[in-house]
Queue: 3 jobs
Job 1
Amino acid sequence: MEGKAVWRLLPAAAAVVATFAVLIATDTSPRSVAFYAFYWAWCVVLPGTLVYRAVRAKPHSLVDDLAMGAALGLVLEMAVFAALAALDLRGLLILWPVPVVALTVGIGPLRRRVLARGGTRAPLSWSWTVAGIYLFLLGYLALEFFVPVTLTPAVNQLYHIDLLYLLGIVTEAKHHFPLQMSQVAGEPLLYHWFSYAHMAVGSLVSGVDAPTVMFRTGLPPLYALAVVLMAVAGWRVSGRPWVGAGAAALTFVVGELAYGSLAWSALGGQVAYTLWSSPSVVYGYIMGLALIVLAAGLMTRFDRMALALLVLFAFAAPGAKSTVLPVMLCAIGLVCLVQLVRRRFTAAPWLIAGIVLVAQVAAVVVLYGFDDHALTFNPLRTLDSVSGYGRAMVLVAFLIYWGARLMGIPLAIWLRGHRFEDSEWMLLGGTIAGFSAALLMFHPSLSQLFFLRAGFIFGAILSAIGVAALVDRLGLQPRQVWHLAAGAGAISLLAWLVLRTGEDPLLRSGEVVPRVFQMALLIGIAAAIVLALGFFVSRRWPGLRRKAVLGAVLVVLGGGLMSLPSDAYYYPNMRGSFHQHVSAQQLAAAAWIRANTGKEGILATNGHCVTPPAQPDCLRLSFWISAFAERRVLLEGWGYAPKMLNDWKGPYCDADLQRANDGTFTDPTPATVHVLWRKGVRTLVVDRRYGRESAELANYAQLVWEREPIAIYELLPTETPDAAPG
């Protein structure tokens, strides 16, 4: 028995060892890796799993307890963070698991529930498959992001603009609550910020600096949890472990149907580019998958504690990603609609719908402050983002590009539609909602595609259910399915080799549609050949017809297998597109500010544009100071402020404030300096690439640090705008 237990630990051990190896190989210190691993085990997995085991109705499997427990740990962590941050007691964050451990160990009934054995053991082959999916994803992350983005950058290291903005949220959460936009001091942060607060907690508890968490240690645990939770969700909804593994593969291994990589384009992407450039996506997947697991369980067997857990996740989900709950509401809404049509009512879906609706309304009021963040109802405007083709052609390409992996859904409807349970209607509703919202809504940053990403996890599970139903209908054995899947993967690789170009630049918008149709044509021909060969030789070998049917389906499902490798091969770190240079001098200035200014201090800077020198139409998206100095900036880059989302290149909406800010550097007067002093500014950061400071500035501020092209001044005290200080 002990030997078998050791063998069962090997998949998890392989994943952990590989993660440590990748992180250390990409210039992460062993100390940082070890301390951050301790933080995850102590502050996320342990307390969450203890609480989950104490309240869940009955055991399902150990991996289920750990995955759902870790997800619950993230939710509880945010509640504790908000409470302690509001009281300015962040130093106690490391102690929050102590009462959880004490209660579950000290109270007899809870201890017995936590220690009780039972449930189903995950098949060892399933565990290795899930571990392999994570290792594939980790390899993509390493080649695409870790290798090209160093932790100790040389001059002109390229950082993705969004990641600098998001790092600013992490550092804001480390020092302040309620959160503001650290790039525009005084503006409330109306945003789904939980994933970045989670990284802030990880930095505070582990002692690992925020950039290391953001660019290294923070991502692999979230990736691993999302993969395992997807596998668990598919297992729980269908009752079959391999459905979960298949859904995880369709989500995190197989990409969109195109050669090259179009993940950054107007068509978007599910994993490639998205997961490393927007960590809130994978954090949102975790919350969405937990909701799927709990909702499916409640619609099968009502349980009050499961309902309480669903409430917690429903109220946490909007802070994880704003698109999760709207998609979930539509998913449950379809279940309720089906019950209305059939006139067969059960209480669970209606109760779940009510909880999700209340949570969404609360999020709109509290988290988002009724701000629409430039999201508008604009049907099919998404398709116009691809130039050179009509909407009809782009729509077909869009559906092929995203939908090839979901071919199992029509199979599920055909083979199981008349026997669909509430959970399967929920999965179908979430899929439809994701596609519909992406096509009906529009955002200047194409953020409407996050609805599709939120809905895709529903579709991946339902697609895997359809494939499983087809395997059952054909009467094939698992080994035969594995062989056919390997063959489908080989065909996908061959198609990529046939179509790929040697040195693929970032594609122009007009090249997107041909890339989809060319790959679709090649994969379609391959699937047709497989099907035709199976039927041709079936007279002599009758069993081949059934294999050919499944083989053709798997060829289509796996057509995008090379999407992630293509992205890592062609576009590591997106080839520097939409990035900002950060030099060693800038990082040294940020380090001096962290060491010599108080966390409540506010900075002012003359650098607002991504690329100097300043131009009238430049992108006002410079975020490096707030990201690395861990301080609020009066006006750094304002393009992501809710009021400015439709105009990244224009002046700030408060012209007087911008005039006072910039005038302090170029033509300081008692009036301009007093405006900054009254706003709390005590430190000026001059970036001379945008223009040298006026000699008059010495009358109002003292030079305290200088390393070309950066200079730092401390403002001299001022009381009134009528006279210069000193």
Note: The chain has 28 helices and nine strands.
Job 2
Amino acid sequence: MGMSKLNSAPSGRPYPSDLDTPVLEFAKGEFIRLRDLFEGMLVFGGVGSGKSSGVARTLAHVMLANNFGGMVLCAKPGEADTWEQYAREMGREESILRVGPTDLWRMNFVAYELRKSGNRSIGNIVELIFKMVEATRLSKPLGSGSGSENGFWEDASRQLLLHSIPIIFAANGTFSFELLRAFMSSAPKTPQEVEEPTWQATSVFHHCFRKAREAPLEPIDSHTLSTCATYWLSDFAPLDNKTRSNIVISLTSMLSRFSQGRLHTLFCTETTFVPELTFDGTILLLDMPEKIWKEDGVIAQIILKYLWQRAAEARAAYLTPEDMRPLFLAGDECQFFLTPGDAEFFSTARSARVASLYITQSLPTIYSKIGGIRPEHTAEMLLANLCTRIFCRNVCHVTNRWAAESAGQGLVWRESKNWGSNSGGSKSDTTGSNIGRSWSVNQTHMFGPAGGNRSATNAGSDNDGWNRSLQNGTSWGEQQGGGLQQQKDYKLDPAIFTTSLRSGGPEHGGLVDAVWMQAGRRFSYSGGDIFTPVTFKQEGAQ
């Protein structure tokens, strides 16, 4: 198997801009180029397979050594520590910004977006808020949906936001959900109420509208001001109390998770960091592990990932490709952070010069987070644009068969053998006997001179005998043969991923075997196929 090596370029050099820059070397002169990283990478491997300590570590070193900026999603405690260690090994420790363990780093994303584009981007901001709301639902499977019965209330909530944010921002120069709540709760209940001095004296709504009109802290055009006033006085105020209250409650309930606690502090106070820091080489470690922060950690990281993805794609509008520092998005246990929007991002990440490195155990792990009747369809859509797939040792037959199917089928030679033997024998045993007797009597009368007589008798003889014969014989024979046949079958047998890949550790000398598979690439090491074997070294392996 080929041995992967880090690019030998010295640490601290300017980031590469040529897409054909080699960054990872295989055996037999095979190189992974910068452009290949931007096509997305997906690593599969069972527990203890070396996918993190071997594969992910090597790829992290590659991106850090080439001065990528990026974002790291953390599902497990200790993941941020691991990446800090990688940064030290590559001389990049000063690039780390660790978000989560303290309240130092915060991002009021609505105020952040307003600062960038002002009231011109209100539609985008409303969508951002609903992306945030959507993130709170991702503790449920992706395929579960929110139900069409909520459509009316969500549309009404969008209208309310569209006509609140411009006024609040113009009047205060900032935005917060506390201001939004006070603005909505003090809105007029009838068109006539706006003329009442008592209501005017206590209403945050009245104060914001008057200041936006007379002395705005942020510019607002007359058309936007008029449109917002018409909505509140002509559309919202005349509604019956129940409908009006339900619209407000619908919105406030969607935002309730951000009214206190970690999510409130992180997203609804001030802004001390922005995603664009990564454009200068910063590595954002989102140290909010799911195992500790639970749902709050998943929600926070999904929101920050979405904001970062938007910023990374938007820079192509004002930077040339040569001026765009390479970026990366890395996530071990990526199933916690998958969203429907990832599919679109992966499809355009190459033009944004973003490398995606997602790591998980198996396809069923992803299916379980997606849910629904046919989760494999959603999974295929999400993963289709991760064009490099790296398979480590795995006992999951679903994943192993998917890997074999990804490699494709072809005509392969299959050897056949046959062998046979025969044996036989015969045995005969015969026994015989004979018995015979012969006798005779001879009687003689003799008359002697004295006138007497004399007689004598002669008897014959008896005889017997036997005979036996024994015959025994054995015969034995053997035959064997064989041949080769061409058949259409998997180029990679699924069993390879279970039985033939080393998983690091002392038992394997710290060496981790994997199959590197890349769409559209032909590897000479494997005879022109889209896959090639490769070996990674764990830390300390010789």
Note: The chain has 20 helices and 17 strands.
Job 3
Amino acid sequence: MHRQIHINRKLLVAFMLVLLANIAYHVDMLGHVAYAFERGRLRADREHLTQLEDSDIATVERLSHAFSVIAEVVKPSVVNIEAITLDRQLEQFFGRPVPKHGTGSGVIIDEDGYIVTNNHVVENAKAIPVTLADGRTYRAKLIGTDPGTDLAVIKIDADRLHPAQLGDSDRVKVGHLVLTIGSPFRFGHSVSHGIVSALGRSDVTVDIDYQNWIQTDAAVNPGNSGGPLINARGEIIGINTAIATESGGHQGVAFAIPSKTVRYIANKLKTGKRIVRGYLGVAIEPVDSKTASAYGLSEAGGALVSKVSKGTPAERAGLQAEDIILAVDGERVGTREGLQQMIAAVEPGTDADLLVWRNGKKINRIVRIEPQPEGFSPTGSLDAISRPDPAENDDETKEKDNQISESSREPRSNHKRFDALGFEAATVSPMLSKRFKLDKRVQNGAVITWVDPTSEAYAARFRPGRVITRANGRRIRNIRQLEQALTAESLAKGIRIRLTLNLRGQDEDDLLTVLQIR
């Protein structure tokens, strides 16, 4: 009995060994089959690749070769800049000057050794070592800076230089292929590529007045500042100046100063001239399709005048609030920032011909441009809404003001809620003036007391404490006049209403805006 069991165990072990060997064999066979299949697929793909060589692959190779040629042409024009400044905080700690080394890039613009870079690269530098593509190093002299555009010109005494060729940034289109060369993270003369992803970018949160930048997705990192943005012809179409990032490095959004601006500013700085910009004396707002429709224009564009300052070239030329400036000296105004750039570029003391849209007609106004006043900034005087609103600085006040006003001391007949637009307003009164800290000179109008944060009014920059002074061109002195202007007929769906707001609590109008019932 025991012998029989022992024999059975041997047979079972033998069976298992045969079974495992069979499985291993078949697994190996499956592996061989899979390998053969993969080998066959790769052979077919290789044959397919060979068939594509004269068409698709050749196109890719030509593009790759073009990138290589462009890089080789432009590289000798690009320099690495090391800006040495003194760290004052560490100087107080160590009792002696402590050098701080920054890095950036620059572009040689002529054979005399002038180099254009960013102002923020060389600002406050005590020494500026420059390294060329061939390894030669020189100490550069600072010739001039323009913080308004973030441009600077430095100079080296050197021979055998290879100046870059500046292109026409006005011909750049979204989608164009571009290259950048610079010294990201101190890795000199690194090349990256991408496309132009947007034009005329402004409102980037950096302390630079004149932007209107070219946006690209090419890899731009710290150290690329001052380096070139290059088109497919090897021309410099921009100088890299800023990136949008949450990590401190490349995240696909970079900005370059257009070569048109670079050429103008660099030529001025090279001659030692101070940059003097033109001044018009207006506050302006953008004209989107909604605003254009409200004023009878067929398309968006231009800049809406919300305020004409007293004693300015604009006032002397007869410009008025609610004028829309369409062109300057025959050149179309595309955006508010575009007008700022165009007026700034006009030589003070010369005349500019403004094409203006007023009351449904085009008229011309000749204005004698003056120099900008001391301390002027287009993000301040020209852009009234950039100034802080006292009612929005205090979180506690803001929380209270975004509630429906139910003051027992303020009669409800003095209030009117416009549900279709999403706000409530009341006639300016001593109590409301005190509550919203209005200037004593503001005696008339309808002060906004509540705004629905999801409404059209909120999107149009209505906020508690701002005063409505005009509606569709009519002067508003109290809530009753505002009710008359915003009748049921005028609030019909799709109708656009032009409103003027006083933002700063003074006896001046600041903002023209358009509301529309959706």
Note: Confidence is low (pLDDT under 50) at residues 380-409.
